[in-house]
Write a structure and sequence with these properties.
Blueprint: H1 5-17, E1 27-29, H2 60-69, E2 73-78, H3 95-105, E3 109-113, H4 127-142, E4 149-153, E5 171-173, H5 182-189, E6 204-206
Helix pairs in contact: 1-2, 3-4
């Protein structure tokens, strides 16, 4: 992946310099690629179990501080499985420890993608199975001394809008990925009615990215 600490900060500066921050664009999120790649021979964690960043993200605390200094908020991405969707090291069996390190970096937003956790599931459409990994990270986030927006990303499986708030989600992806074709945008955009009644203050539906340009 081409994402780097410098590019993330450059995007944050552009939010301010181009006036986007004045119109509600307040979160700068890294969507995967900051961790050690799963197939790398490098240690994925330090001896104490703390997750390691790769050579493109040498100081996450500084990145968070720099983004906050611009008046913006800092978001990150991970997964309850061993690997993220991009094949990078994720949070499996380190949820509490990773929640603490995210807080120490100044993270304000966590997007949590189901990804490789699916291999532990018998039925990926079973709400009871789907709740387990998200409840686990929610409990970890409750124990840290920082408010982090919790974004559940499991592609709308198991009618997540019916139970996302129950497991601590502030938002939940209601669909699979969007892409820049009208048919896909229309398919997603015009099929959100069933989820609408479950949105409310502090918890809302996420029909994926706003495709522009």
């Amino acid at each position: 992946m081409s994402v780097t600490q410098e590019r993330v900060y450059a995007a944050a500066r552009a939010f301010v310099e181009k006036g986007l921050a004045d119109h509600g664009w307040s979160f700068v999120n890294i969507d995967d690629g900051w961790e050690i790649y799963g197939q790398s021979t490098e240690p994925k964690r330090k001896q104490n179990g703390e997750i390691r960043t790769n050579e493109k993200f040498l100081n996450m605390k500084k990145l968070g501080d720099d983004i906050h200094a611009l008046g913006l908020k800092f978001g990150i991405y991970s997964s309850p499985g061993p690997l993220t969707c991009g094949g990078y090291t994720a949070n499996y069996q380190h949820e509490a420890q990773d929640a603490q390190i995210f807080a120490s970096w100044g993270v304000d937003y966590l997007k949590y993608g189901l990804c490789s956790y699916q291999k532990f599931m018998k039925d990926v459409n079973d709400p009871q199975e789907l709740k387990i990994p998200y409840q686990k990270m929610h409990r970890a986030l409750q124990k840290i001394n920082r408010d982090i927006i919790y974004s559940i990303c499991e592609y709308g499986l198991g009618n997540v809008w019916q139970w996302g708030a129950e497991v601590g989600g502030n938002l939940w992806l209601t669909t699979g990925d969007i892409w820049d074709e009208w048919d896909r945008m229309a398919e997603i955009g015009f099929n959100q009615q069933q989820a609408a009644p479950y949105a409310g203050p502090g918890h809302w539906n996420d029909p994926d990215m706003l495709v522009i340009g």
